[in-house]
Design brief:
The complex is a heterodimer of chains A (about 260) and B (about 400). Chain A has about 260 residues and is of the alpha/beta class. Chain A contains ten helices and ten strands. In chain A, about 40% of the residues lie in helices and about 25% in strands. In chain A, strands 6-7-8-3-9-10 form a six-stranded mixed beta sheet, with helices on both faces. Chain A is globular and about 55 Å long. Chain B has about 400 residues and is an alpha/beta fold. Chain B has helices at about 50-65, 80-95, 110-115, 135-165, 175-185, 190-215, 220-260, 260-265, 270-310, 315-325, 330-355, 360-390; strands at about 5-10, 10-15, 25-30, 35-40, 70-80, 100-105. Chain B has a six-stranded mixed beta sheet, with helices on one face. The radius of gyration of chain B is 37 Å and the shape is elongated. Classes of the chains: A alpha/beta (about 260), B alpha/beta (about 400). The interface between A and B is large, with 37 and 37 residues.
Amino acid sequence: MSIDNQISEPILEVENLKLVYGDYLVLENISFTAKKGECLVVMGASGCGKSTLLKSMIGLLPPAYGKILVDSEDLWSVETEHQSLILKKYGVLFQGGALWGSMNLVENVSLPLQAYTNLPEPEIEDLARYKLNLVGLSGYGDFYPAQLSGGMKKRAGLARAMSLDPDILFLDEPSAGLDPINSHRLDNLINELKDSLGMTFVVVTHELSSIFDIADNSIFLDGQTKTLLDFGPPCNLREHSEHKRVRSFLHRGNPVK
Amino acid sequence: MNLEKKNDNGNVWLQARQGDSRDSYVQFILEGDCVICILQGEWSIDNNSGSCVREEWNDFLSENPAINHFMFKLHSEMNWDSTLVSFLHKCRKDLQGINKTLKFDELPKGLFQLLELSKPTIIEQKQNEFSLSLELIDETINYFRKAVISFFEFFGEWVLSVCRLLMGRSQARFSDFANSCRACGASALPIVTLISFLTGLTMAFVGSVQLEKFNAKIYVADLVCLAMVREMGALMVAIIMAGRTGASFAAEIGSMKLNEEIDSLRTFGISPMEFLILPRTLSLLLMIPLLTIYADVVGILGGLVVGTVVMDFSIIHYFEQTQVALIGMWEVYSGLLKSVVFGLIIGLVGCYKGLNSGNDSSSLGRAVTAAVVVAVTWIVISDALFEITFSYLDLR
């Protein structure tokens, strides 16, 4: 949204990506770019391959064809050790939070900090509690995941994904299951992190209100043609997309001209 | 301490000593009872420089208790990430704890917003801490009392559901029962064969060494046969099934609980006891005696191999001696009776532990471990009770 973002360089480039499960084609001819410090939203009806695309971008599903470039390095053609270096730039929030059940929230958020930094233990704990506060979980640091609701688990998962101040944060349905206040708070947080720390966000979501609040750019995946239907800022797509399905999606399914 | 003081036009300056190798600094400028804290340098998660600043901050706070107002500023040229925000967050917490005022107004907008977002919304809640007291003893006794009561409730419910099954009013499905029979019966044959064959073989070897001293080698057949049918057949099968089937019951039902599948059954008015637990326990109850008979035969064959190959008895001679040893079918029935009780223990403990596992993956692991350990313990205890009872009733 800021002028800086428009002139900044690309951090994530996807070129001609084709994704399959065995013989089943999920997506093909997918090409788009995310620039440093922007928020890119991946939209599409359920079952169109949004989460599959995310899986491929975070190094869990090799593509059948095409490239995923992170800072101009191809994630899927480098050596495994180098790939893990690239993956260190990532923070990932999974749909259910994917917290480690045997650790409390502070330990969950601290583990990546213990593994990858040499900060002293009290500082790590402070950082972990600060991250938990950011997502509205102040006071829940000593709780275990089993003692939390689904929405709280998701927010704790986000705190963990942010623990290492990653360059790119991938969020899979971050606001699903959150109440409107926390959902709004999360959108604010995304915007603040983007503006102040220059983090890049790739967000998979259907929440329209959230899309218009956070997205600088968006891509629309289509389950019928199994490809990327449109690319651009969501406000533009809502009014001016040449595809009726995209306009209808962004108008909450209401009939469009 | 890493601070030095200088006077400059009436102001007292405290600042980090220059020339050290760290990247981040804090400078304190005193103005009456107000202090301006200027943060500078490189604040990054990758270097450990923030901890010196934290020390300085703590020292400054303890040495200057009279200062009531704090203001934070950022040096114009500095890089920062979450470590700086976390430091300021800690400063805010420290100062609020001792009723001092602080101002973040002059911080850059982004940093100020992040601090606003991370303001605590509710009071810190502490989990109960471990303490050794009378309450703890009371809690422990209560825990065991509840565990015993809940197991007997479970057992009672199981008996009632068996009654409903006998009256033809059960929701259990025959296909579940058949699948479970295959999983805990036929699929267990290879491991049961191997273990019981080797048990028979080992007993024959151990026995032959001792019996040779009395020139009574042929009684190896008696030893192997009686030990297998009275004791080892049932016991070995029970231990195999506790590790194999009991653990799988606990894991299967525990993960169903984790995925809220059990709750969804209840919302449809389907009893998990009848739908999940009854087919599993009954199939085990049916399969365990059959596997025990099979294990008895294979164990005797193990003894036969030693008897014929190592001790040079003929097959007929060995079998005749085995027949003589088995004076009545009670020897076999007593083993089968034990095996039915063992099967009941394994099935009920496995399902009970699965159904009572917690809502996280680690408690599922604990449930599976407990299912095996508790089942094996009760198998051995009940085996001992059986033998004591049989010998008092002159049944041996």
